[in-house]
Write a structure and sequence with these properties.
single chain, alpha+beta, 5-stranded antiparallel sheet, 4-stranded antiparallel sheet
Length: 154
């Protein structure tokens, strides 16, 4: 079993297909299957699997990333945790503005149905990473999210 990234603790359950490790703060779960595909319950699956804990759906898991390469999993998790810590300013037509972590905003959106009208988490993450801002529409009106670090430098 590879060494887990910081913050992940064993959350395996007796009837799970394979061991799992959870980071509650990051809302992520890493599943680690057997190295040999023929020993796995589902041999066609890749060995490692990262899921997000979706609080809006009774803590159901949402698939994020699969790989046989452990370093690819570590890189994905570190990148996700780093971007989730990015400070953003969120403003909306009908809500007071807020300064928060990007991961917190995304979890709020999933919990309240904030991704609507063709907008989604992937587009929000891409806009923040590439342009430093993202504009969208939800049931409360238009909203704007700014990457605080990028816009304070300008």
């Amino acid at each position: 079993m590879p060494a887990m990234p910081a913050g992940f603790v064993d959350s395996s359950w007796g009837n799970d297909v394979c061991p799992s490790f959870t980071n509650e703060a990051a809302k992520l779960v890493i599943w680690c299957d057997y190295p040999k595909p023929e020993e796995r319950e589902f041999p066609e699956w890749l060995r490692f699997h990262v899921c997000a804990i979706d609080e809006s759906a009774d803590n159901n898991l949402r698939d994020l990333f699969w790989a046989d390469d452990w370093q690819a999993i570590v890189g994905f998790v570190e990148s996700r945790m780093s971007s989730d810590a990015t400070r953003v300013d969120y403003a909306s037509d009908n809500e007071a503005g807020a300064d928060m972590a990007l991961g917190e905003l995304i979890r709020n959106f999933h919990a309240t149905g904030g991704f609507q009208f063709g907008h989604n988490e992937s587009d929000l993450r891409h806009g923040i990473a590439s342009r430093g801002w993202y504009e969208g529409l939800h049931r409360n009106g238009r909203y704007l999210v700014l990457n605080v670090q990028k816009h304070r430098k300008a």
